[in-house]
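Morning!

As promised:
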Amino acid sequence: MTEQTYDAIVVGSGISGGWAAKELTESGMKVLLLERGENIEHITGYVNALKAPWEIPHRGRLTNQIREEHMAATRDSFMHESNANYWTNELECPYVEKRPFDWFRGYHVGGRSLMWGRQSYRWNRFDYEANAKEGVGVDWPIRYEDMAPWYDHVESFAGISGSLEGMEQLPDGKFLPPMELNVAEKSVAARIKAHYADSRRLIIGRVANLTEPHNGRVNCQYRNKCDLGCPFGAYFSTQSSTLPAAVKTGNLTLRPFSIVTRVLYDKDLKKATGVEVLDAETKATQEYKSKIVFLCASTLNSAWVLMNSATDVWPDGLGSSSGELGHNVMDHHFRVGASGDIDGFVDRYIYGRRANGFYIPRFRNLFGDKRSYNRGFGYQGSADRRGWDREIAELSIGAAMKDALTEPGPWRIGMTAFGEVLPNHDNRISLDKNTRDKWGLPVLSIDCDIGDNEKKMRLDMMNDAAEMLEAAGVKNVTPYDSGYVLGQGIHEMGTARMGKDPKSSVLNKHNQVWDAKNVFVSDGSCMASTSCVNPSLTYMAMTARAAAFAVDALKRGDV
Amino acid sequence: MQTDASPPRPGMNRREAIRRIALLMGGAMVGSEILLSGQTIPGKTAAGFTEDDRALLDEIGDTIIPETDIPGAKAVHIGAFITMMVADCYNDKQHAVFMEGLQKIDAASRAMNGKTFMECAPAERTALANALEAEQRAQYAKKAKDDPVHYFRMMKELTVLGYFSSEIGCTKAVRYVEVPGAYHGDVPYTKGERAWF
């Protein structure tokens, strides 16, 4: 074995790639983990994590320079001055929007596991059955029962805090103690529960923040600065969790600045032999060999690697024989909901900055409810007393206004729905060979939009939010729909979907590419539908499941 | 001697909290000494603005947030902050409105008080600022979505932002704890107690 030959190569070091590296190295495999961007060291790499508000020059606001480098990413509010360096420079890494698409990328070790929202929910059994029942897209080749042990596995390691609710549409898991709803949220929760006879419930978010020490990691300190990187390692990220576990085995080689340009494919063996890497710093090209390859480069980029591979055999890329590679791009649609004022509780307040909110699990198109659209949505939100940035109608300027702003304002509640997006063959990405990135590589052209099902659902997403807040006694309820384009949810899925039939899917039920069985794709690309819950926990479970299969298959000599 | 590496406690000051984090992390906090130096950003006039602009904005800021039992906006170098924000964060359209506003404010002052803003006594400045605030609110209520806001709204918004997020704002006007260590969702509150940043 030369030093450039490994048992497995994992492409991408985000949530999925980190899990692949951990599981494969722990099974004794020698693993090369390739990351296209720079290394961000745990703790010491989080350069702004311990700065006070006044040490951030523009106090978090986006500068014109940041806007120029991140044209798409600045269309929403996920990035700010303090973590702009974690988001990909779009001048260096452009993409083409045939129709508007917001693509939020994190090109560095840890990927978006450093900036993710950390909401962690299991899919339910209806989610895995819906495509088959409705004849939408292709049937999932797996069911909840296939995933349940792997949800157990990843929750136990990652550390997910949450409450046990016994709700069929939001399966309970292996949770750490839940965070706390505040006094205003509890009152709204109680009134919603009563009004809807417990068919709708407002619960504390299930979040990958530790509420007690776990696996040698420190619990959450309630600073709510997670997206800067946590010096305590109190939320799940590659850096805090999977990478140290993989490093500990002695079986991991991490190579940053390694852009994987293609999977090397042997047409006689009908298998991959490794990958080609372009060094992002030196621009030198090098090949690395391995028995298996795990693509975890993110939904759009894993598809990019496949589309750029084996084009002598398949002009549209490795895994394109079904005609579905790069198609069926999905996301969660959101930015629609309601907000309002909560009277009272003026003698109550909170302490600490909770990096979590509440969650209202899906209630539409379930248990006998039937709407004019398919699937459903859940809500995320929070209540808090208003701060110094509020406008006070009766006070304009001067000492009285200043004094008033030094005290907390009235309570306010807001929530936004996250809705399921259906697979649609016409929503696709492709290589644009006329547009090149900093390294001369072809970029992605993205051509996607939501359809009628999502548009109909958005009306319910807005009106149901308003109705529930009204029912809970909230005042001045304001429904809103701020508009949405695909990608904004940062939950891209579906470009290399799993299925039962190689004619209509890219991957089989073990995340193997039908056309090259030693290539596994276990990030969001593999999803055949989206559920309405946040997807990362499912990527973790899917990756751990695929890795276990890969290890066994390799032992059997079956890949 | 045993080193105290217990987690930071609620209410602990920032310096101590950062030391505790460094200890918890096995002393791995490279850069923690820099963080402990407590540096603040010195007030400099941004490119495109004159020293007179900065001085004027200091006084406008101090009219919006005057000194009371706690320092006002001038004490946090609000003029320098505003010039930096306009230079670095505003788009061309907003920038133009703001720069025009700097001229308009003296014209408005002459019309109301017969002298420039800097020449006005505090009460005259307050009267003018109240009039401009009424003007901007009226404009804001009827403006189209993509129209820039009134220049006085810009000045007020940047004054409030710069003041409350400054060290004085965070630690004297409101409260800020670097490492809360816990979350409590139902604690008693008595009117007069400071809000959390």
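Chain B touches chain A through 69 residues (CB under 8 Å).

Hope this helps with the figure draft.
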